[in-house]
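Is TXD placement plausible here? Inputs below.
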Amino acid sequence: MIFKRPKIALIGGGKIGSLLAQMCSYRQLGDTVLFDITANFTKGVALDIAEASRTEQFNVNVTGDHEYQSIENADLCIVTAGLPRKPGMNREDLLVANAKIIKTIGENIKLYAPDSYIIVITNPLDAMVTLMQATTGFPKNRVLGQAGVLDSSRFATFIATELGVSVQDVNALVLGSHGDMMVPLIRHANVNGIPVQELLYRKYGNREKADQVMHDIVERTKKAGEEIVKLLGNGSAYFSPASSAYMMAEAIIYDKKRVVPACAMLEGEYGIEGYYAGVPVVLGRDGVERVLEIDLDKKERELFLASVDVVVKLKEDLKQLGYI
Ligand code: TXD
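Reply from A.M.:
I modeled the complex. Tokens:
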């Protein structure tokens, strides 16, 4: 072979990891290894996916493993390992259980895939990305988290449904931490450039009603993860998180320079120093190539800072627990 195919290590072979293995294989993003602590399960999943190669017509390799050595020289690691939420739990409740797991994984990525890019998905997201970067010591452009793509996609879906327009034409951005304090940006939401607020006003002919509908969409977006957790009864969302992570992986591997909200390290941007938070970034072959700063009005800024406070607190907790 003249060119090396990218190697993608999916660390955590549960629902999101398995779906990602399927997407990476079917869409031929690269050779994929699905790693999990369970001995045989990922081998079974990978074999099952591989056996669809004839009908799906893909030529990449997909394997399952439970030895860390299997992630050796991965170009991209996507980390979903950990416990998902149960009904009644918030994402922060997962901190202690998942910190231990992420620390071990970080040490092994550092050992076996020292040049890789890492997309973390495990909750509580902002804290787990912080811990991953601290454990690996990788440069900030190579360690990021997926949440904003999903939260923004949820926001866009609800807007499209309300307005009866194609979601393909909706642009909607959610910033801040991945939790109840996330900040869906109302002012920036638009349908092919037309402000959503204006379309709602035209639909209802009444500013108060339009504002109420927008408010409800924002609240539903913030609680969208919980809505799925309650409906599933066991575990959390997995189709849309896998799809969101895949989009980010593709942006890095194909050097697409996509503009997406991601959990990225802020060093002065938005007036924040040394914390991870959800902001718009340019994603390409260098991972987080740039953080894009946008003007926030007074209220948006207050909400954003309050949301980052959650990350500040979680980072403090990680320090107290001796993880960083
Ligand atoms: O947008 C987002 N960031 C999220 C994140 C949206 C939805 C779900 N989000 C979080 O992703 C969720 O709260 C969980 O923390 C992760 C993974 O969710 P998933 O639904 O895939 O969870 P599963 O099916 O329980 O899979 C987790 C796997 C499971 O197979 C365990 O055996 C494995 O993680 N696991 C480990 N793998 C490797 N190494 C270690 N140490 C380990 N411990 C558990």
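Short version: Residues 11-17, 36-38, 80-85, 98, 101, 104-105, 121-123, 125, 146-147, 150, 178, 235-238, 241 surround TXD (CB under 6 Å).
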